[in-house]
């Protein structure tokens, strides 16, 4: 895709997914769906694992919510259960004084067409909230 490799980012193999009870996947968006590299032909049995996702698009019309919906169809085929954040982020969901990615499906940011835009403080706060939220849900449901 023309992007330099990020050797400092750890990789996980499908079998290592069995060690987790829940996951938050980050998807770059390509034409309203997660990038092809994120689609899995075969994966370890991840049945009954909770999942959420966050997104990065080039622009506001880049397809953050569409990516969320298409990611759900991919991940439920592997038995994962989707946990949206809904409106649990509170007032930050309705912030209109700055550009902000994300939605009720998950946190998000707009990277710009060349990837130069960095997430704002508000976008990072929403992502942190989402991580805590899915951890809380996963912990509650694991007890039951």
Shape: globular
Number of helices: 2
Query: What is the first-to-last residue Cα distance?
Result: 43 Å
The radius of gyration is 15 Å
Q: Tell me the count of domains.
A: 1
- The count of strands amounts to 5
Structure overview:
Belongs to the WrbA family. It comes from Arachis hypogaea. This is NAD(P)H dehydrogenase (quinone). It is a single chain. This protein has 144 residues and is an alpha/beta fold. 25% of the residues lie in helices and 17% in strands. It has one domain: Flavodoxin domain (Rossmann fold, 3-Layer(aba) Sandwich). It has helices at residues 64-76, 121-143, and strands spanning 22-30, 33-34, 50-57, 81-82, 108-110. Strands 1, 2, 3, 4 and 5 form a five-stranded mixed sheet that branches. The model has no long low-confidence stretch (mean pLDDT 84).
């Amino acid at each position: 895709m023309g992007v330099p490799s990020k050797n400092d980012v750890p990789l996980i193999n499908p079998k290592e997914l069995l060690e987790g009870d829940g996951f938050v996947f980050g998807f770059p968006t390509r034409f309203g769906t997660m990038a092809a590299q994120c689609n899995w032909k075969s994966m370890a049995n991840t049945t009954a694992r909770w999942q959420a996702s966050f997104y990065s698009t080039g622009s506001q019309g880049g397809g953050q919510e569409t990516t969320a919906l298409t990611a759900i169809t991919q991940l439920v085929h592997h038995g994962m259960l989707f946990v949206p954040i809904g409106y649990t982020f509170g007032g930050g969901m309705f912030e209109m004084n700055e550009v902000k990615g994300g939605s009720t499906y998950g946190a998000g940011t707009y990277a710009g067409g060349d990837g130069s835009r960095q997430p704002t403080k508000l976008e990072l706060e929403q992502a942190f909230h989402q991580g805590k939220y899915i951890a809380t849900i996963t912990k509650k449901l694991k007890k039951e």
